[in-house]
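Entry 14. Structure prediction run on the chain below.
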Amino acid sequence: MIEILNWIIRIAHYYEYAIVIYVLMSWLPGAQQSTLGRWLQRIVSPYLNLFRIIPPIGGMIDISPIVAILALNFAISGLTHLVLLFV
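Output returned:
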């Protein structure tokens, strides 16, 4: 059970890295239209769209990726506590 939890945590961390890279690519012109950018968009956008209901700060700064990463961390933390509770 712990091995499975370790794999889930590792995948979640890789997913966080993908979100951060995708967000950083938005600062570079044309980077999100590259092959890597389109691939990351297919992976990350469905999850980020769940948090797009949060309006941008000042009309420009989108904080939904930060909230998405926090939610992912809370979910992993909760899952870890649940698994360790029953082991």
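The chain has a mean pLDDT of 93.
Filed with the rest of this week's runs.
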